[in-house]
Amino acid sequence: MDLTTERAKGGPRHVAIIMDGNGRWAQARGKPRLFGHHAGAKRVREIVEACPDLGVRYLTIFAFSTENWKRTQTEVAGLMSLFRRYITREARSLFKEGVRVRFIGDRIKLDEKLVRLMDDLELMTSDNDRVHLTIALNYGGRDEVARATKRLAREVKAGRLDPEKVDAESLAKYLDTYVLPDPDLVIRTSGEARISNFLLWQSAYAEYEFIDTLWPDFTAETFARSVASYAGRERRFGAVPG
Ligand code: FPP
Please, which contacts does 107-112 make with residues 24 or more away whose CB atoms are closer than 8 Å? Predict the structure, then answer.
């Protein structure tokens, strides 16, 4: 298929979301930040369940960035415990809903118990195909490219890869996302217009949608509106309009 120009008919196939605003949502209610993260985690199920009707086959969500370790120890520990509980509690329903779960990011800094839960959930849902949910955990776009480059360099060193043959396509095979299509639409909640190191490589031609809603208030309806606003945008992939 010629991808140089294409009208974004219908909905986006792959939506990526930067779930921002949990802290402010909690603060506005006089509660600790973790209260907002818990409310945010509850929203994830609703958004995943909305995907099939909206024609969204791939959903990628930013749960924890390589920079989020700079938060207080209480918040980091609370988030890690929330991830463990989320996986334990949601595994069955994700499986039954036909969701295939994948995790991207560097697992090296994550605790063993969490990594085991992540591996188990990936394995348990590996035959599912209805919705592909990818959770970015200890993920950073630059870190991902650096890790990919390291693996590629090892292949070159071992004589298995000709450096002259390295191009964008071959490098992309070493990224965490190598089995996923590039995102068509990236949504960021909470009014910030930044991409914060999320899917830097993969979003080269994505459409962006920055919305004011804080993540814990982001409903299936808000999601449907963002998806609808994508339809009809002209995507040129660098080409001159025809
Ligand atoms: C950003 O809000 C949010 C995060 C760093 C964490 C995202 C996590 C969740 C939505 C919860 C769980 C997710 C899963 C997959 C179980 P913020 O704290 O930066 O908000 P602020 O900008 O208002 O401070």
Answer: 107/137, 107/138, 109/69, 109/138, 110/80, 110/137, 110/138, 111/80
Q: What angle do CA 151, 152, 155 make, to 5 degrees?
A: 95
pLDDT digit string, tens, across residues 76-110: 999 999 999 999 999 999 999 999 999 999 999 99
197 catalytic? Reply is no
Domains in the chain, please, with CATH? Answer: 9-140+181-235 (3.40.1180.10)
Q: Which of 18, 20, 45 to mutate to test the pocket of ligand 1 (most atoms within 8 A of CB)?
A: 20
Q: Specify the 3-state DSSP secondary structure of 189.
A: coil
Which two three-digit tokens encode residue 217?
């208030």
**Residue tagged active-site, from 68, 182, 197, 217:** 68
What's the gap in Å between 20 CA and the centre of ligand 1?
Answer: 6
Question: Measuring CA to CA, how many Å separate 177 from each of 114, 118, 133, 145?
Answer: 20, 16, 12, 11
127 is a catalytic site residue: no
Per the confidence metrics, is the pTM higher than 0.90? yes
3-state secondary structure at position 61 = strand
Distance CA 132, CA 126 (A): 10
